[in-house]
Model the fold of this input.
Amino acid sequence: MIVVIGSPIGWLRDEEVVPTGTPARAALAAAAAGREVQLVGRTGDDPTADGLLLSLSRGGVGHVALLRDPARLTPLAPEPASDDAEPTLPEDVAAPASGPRSLPPLDAADVDLGLRYLTNFAVVVLAEPADQEVVRVVADAAAWNAAQLVMVVDAGTEPSDGLPPDAVVFEAPADDRDGDFAALVGRFAAALDDGTDVADAFRATIEAEGWAEASVD
Done:
């Protein structure tokens, strides 16, 4: 099983909330490759979350360890814009006056609880930037389960200290509007879960995705 850690974001497309953002897109790509996937993170407890979780389920992604927080609103991303237009949200889903449609950073205690609930996973993907305490929790869980750790960090940033020597770190591009990078991460995780070693999984994934240049540490 693959565990992907990161809070999903909704995108309203043709009046349907569909998942976007690196965690959700990576999880969906891994599930599409035939692997069992669970998503650990946080959403609000609102209609946007209802639609988002339904779309994830349809894509084969489990969310039994996904926290629904009634004090927050589920993020709803603007519709991707053309090169000469600004991204927009439809008027009927614009952020209300009570606060932005955003979620707080991952909480170490929540992540720890989710990982304790999900047992016997072979790959764990920390799919969004996180603080040192969250990284420690994820690294400890990976070690306890003898699972391969995969991390995504922002472009230009260094990985956290204390990672296991076999951890794989991807540096996210500044713009992944089309989700190509997230899909690569998900399919790479699927190859690892299938028993392929890191080097071969990476090589096969970038070749299948048609990436001419990529690097992984």
Summary: Confidence is low (pLDDT under 50) at residues 81-101, 213-217. The chain has six helices and ten strands. The CA atoms of residues 97 and 123 lie 40 Å apart. The radius of gyration is 17 Å.
